[in-house]
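hey m, so remember when u said the tokens were messed up on ur end? i reran from scratch. heres the input so u can diff it against urs
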Amino acid sequence: MENGNSSLYSLLKNFDIAMLVTHHAKEMHARPMGIARLDKGMDAYLLTDSDSVKVHEIDKNPNALLTFQSPRQFASVKGEVVVAHDRALLETMWKEAWKVWFPLGKSDPNIAILKFTAHEGEFWDNAGMQGLKYACGAAKAYISGERPNIDSSQHNKVKL
């Protein structure tokens, strides 16, 4: 499990955007969110306006999903979200580019931190050496008429 966890973190640590999926009544709602911080244990921090729809959705149902995608790397992480107003934590994560969303800067009283606590993740990695392994395996599978053999460094489910 630990190897899978570190593989998942290694894959996701360079992402700066994720899709946050929350629940609204019987529907699910997804939107792109900037990642303020991602810890090795896969806890993620996102910033939002305290009065946003997502905050109201999280208050009613904290279960959420983060999805990540690049041209050759994909992941989904299930967990729970809590809304926090921790000014000291905000101070450590603040990026000046966020003034677009929060014109008053890090002192904006409407900033809320969404702390996503991860429980389970799944990833697919077809980039770099993993992509080369996949291409070779896919070619062998094509020739033999069988499905490719994918190892845990290319696709894995991880309990966090």
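this time it looks ok to me. DSSP finds four helices and seven strands in the chain. if urs says something different then somethings off w ur setup not the seq
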